Every structure is written in structure tokens, then in C-alpha cells.
Amino acid sequence: MSAPASATGCRDVPVLAERGQHEVFCGLTGIIWLHRKIQDAFFLVVGSRTCAHLLQSAAGVMIFAEPRFGTAILEETDLAGLADAQEELEREVDRLLSRRPDIRQLFLVGSCPSEVIKLDLSRAAERLSARHAPKVRVLNYSGSGIETTFTEGEDACLAAMVPALPETDRRQLILVGALPDVVEDQALDLLSKLGIEDVAVLPARHADSGLAIGPNTVFALTQPFLGGTLAALERRGARHIPAPFPFGEEGTTAWLTAVAREFGVDQAHFDAVTAAPRARAARAVAQAAEGLRDRSVFFFPDSQLEIPLARFLTRECGMRAIEVGAPYIHRAVVGPELDLLDRGPQLAEGQDVERQLDRCRDARPDLTVCGLGLANPLEAEGLATKWAIELVFTPVHFYEQAGDLAGLFSRPLRRRAALRLEAAE
User: Fold this and answer.
1) Rounded to whole angstroms, how far apart are CA atoms 91 and 88?
2) Dihedral pair phi/psi, residue 326, rounded to 5°
3) Which parts pass through the membrane (predicted)?
4) Which CATH number fits domain 1-23+167-425: 3.40.50.1980, 3.30.465.10, 3.30.230.10, 3.30.565.10?
């Protein structure tokens, strides 16, 4: 059970540190997948009408639907300090909970406006949690888009949950990161077939899941943007299992290998369980990646998925990475990925968007992975792009989604080739 490390890995290569203008998407976006995942939770954003419009647009909520998120609007009197925003917020929460008895967890989510006026949501969460306990647990975290990337909303949410988890001495594994239910079920099924039975998930789908943590807990991350959650779990005494992330056949096998080694799974049994899905994944990737081989790719920093995806595209799809930009390079999280990523691409941490745009234009990559704000201008300049946010919304983890992951990158190139053919005709 071993994943081959690259003899020329990138763990120790120089990193270009950039501290200029950012092109970022709001951290409130994480609510769109979290409210679907945590099925008895409600996310109340304390923010402006702009925050409300963002969430409605991002979620595509029908007017007759009643989603499990909303916005407590900060009016002009709140922003000007002419009203007691704490009292107003508590009245809104009381009204919400009286109308929605199905809520078991309530997240007060800070935004740019609430943080600018220094509204203390942690104090509000403590008072409201005491008032509505034990039926409802009230927590708070920041989803502000100031100087953060959009996936940090999930990290902040999960990190806020950890201190409230009960204590346990049970020997257990926790999978950390919000995955689509079907992907989570596939992962749990694989682990069960390997003989690893005591497995929990953070975030759990329901507040009464029995999720607990203690010194005999080990955990494996399924998303590379959870550095804050990792630190919160370690403060509770849990131990991290470092591993590449389960993207593609190689990444999934390496991730499962690290977990299986921790639980003493026999090599022959590991091979018997994983042989068939590994073969399916390898075939699916090979088929989907036909148009990717020998093509170049350039990553703008956006989601923190960039390093694992660069490893997948270069090692499994035959692409050549020119630059791999990431908002942060957390080596405790992505170190195993850097060990596998061959030297060659420029690694960049942070962003100076104008300088990076210049480097991208000079390189003229076959495919550019970037945020929504940069994609259309680059397309207009003749560059094929892939929206980074789509890689967070789409099921891409583990063996059965490996081909779909490769397809997300090959489709923009096929589309561009089709458009050129049509124009030529």
C-alpha cells in the first residue's frame, strides 16, 4: 500500500510569494453546499441586501421554496449605530426559531458589513445558545469575503463546530469535509469493505449523529482548504492522517492507503477491495483525458484545490503545468501532494492579479483555471478557461468520479475545438 513519490517533488522548491491585489469570490458562497449537507441547520447571514442577493443568485432558489439560509438585513440605522443591532438580531432569531421548529443548529454568519461595524456575533451566539438549549445549538463563524477565498467559508464553519463536539475515548476515524451524499456514501462503503467500521463524518448530516472527538480519534481531510479545521481538531487531541487527496485513481488510492495503514489493513485485502474500482477509474480517466495529453495548464489562486488538481492533471492526464497558484500553501495539508508533483511549474502563493495575468498572457496556456471574474475576459483574449468554482460544486472525489473530474478539464478544450471547426466551415 504505497503511492510512488516523485523523485523530483515540489515540497522544497522556491515559492513565489505575492501580496498584491486579489481577485476573490465571497466566502458566503460555502453556505450553498453546506445548507444542503447539514440537513437540520439554518445559516443566518448578518449582512446587507447585497449579501442576500448574492446567496439567492448563487443558489438559484425558487420564490416558492423555503431554503435553510437567509439574511438578517443590516439597515442604515444599524450601520450608523442608531439602533441596537444585538437586540434586533436576537428578535430576528427568536422569530425564525418559532417559525421553523425543524432547526437544530443555527449558524450566525458574519459578513463584510457586520465585521466592519464590529458586531459581536460570538457573544450573540452564546446568549442565544443558552436561551434555546438544548433544542437548538447556535454557533457563529465569518463568511466575509475580505481578503479570503470562497472555500474558507466551509473551513470557518467546520472549525466553529469542533469546540462544541462532545468528548469520546473511542478509537475512530473522522472524514473531514463536505462531500455530496453519494460521494460520501461511496467513501464509507470502501472503508467498510476494508474493515474500518467506526467512521464518522464532519460535517454530519444531522445534529444528533453522535459525532464526538477525543485523543483516540484520527481524521483524514477530503478537502485541501480545511487548515483551520485541522488546527481545531488537533487542539481537541485528534490526530491528522497526512495523505494526498482523493482526486483521480492515484490520489484516491494514496488517500485510502494512508487510512488503511493507520488501521493495519492487510495488503492483500486492500488490493482485493480496491482492484475493481481502481481499474474502472483508470479507464475512465484515460478516456476522458484523451484531449488533455501534452496540453498546458495555468492555475490562478482561487479555491485551494489547485495543487491537488495540478498533481492529478500532470500525473494522470498527461498535462504540463506552467504555474500553480494557490491562495495559501499549507504544507501540513498539501505536503503529500507536493511530494508527488514533479518539479517544473512555478508555485505561487497569494496573488498579485495584474502580474499573474501578465504571466498567463505571456505563457498562452492551452487551459487556464481561474475564477468567474477572470474567465470571460481571458476567453475574449482567446484563452480556454475552466471556472474554479465548478470544481467545488461538482462531485469529483474518489474512484467513481475520476473520469468526471478529467472531463471537466477536457470539455472546454473540446468546445473550443468545435467552435474553431464551425468557424472554419
Assistant:
1) 5
2) -140, 145
3) none
4) 3.40.50.1980
CATH T-level fold of 27-148: Rossmann fold (3.40.50)
- CA separation, residue 381 to residues 150, 307, 360, 366, 374 (Å): 26, 26, 11, 12, 11
From residue 222, alpha-carbon distances to 141, 227, 300, 312, 391 in Å are 21, 12, 21, 15, 14
The residue behind cell 487527496 is: 245
Q: Write the single-letter amino acid at 98.
A: S
Neighbours of 380 (CB within 10 A): 8
Phi-psi region of 81 (alpha: psi -120 to 50; beta: other; left: phi over 0): left
Q: Chain centroid to CA 36: how far?
A: 14
Binding residues for [4Fe-4S] cluster: 26, 51, 112
Q: Is 351 helix (H, G, I), strand (E, B) or coil?
A: strand
The answer, yes or no, to whether the previous bond of 166 is cis (omega within 30 of 0) is no
Q: Interior CA angle at 266 toward 265 and 271, to 5°?
A: 100
Q: Which residues are annotated as a binding site?
A: 26, 51, 112
32-78 per-position pLDDT tens digit: 899 989 999 999 999 888 888 888 877 776 555 567 888 888 775 55
Cell of 217: 480519534
pTM: 0.92
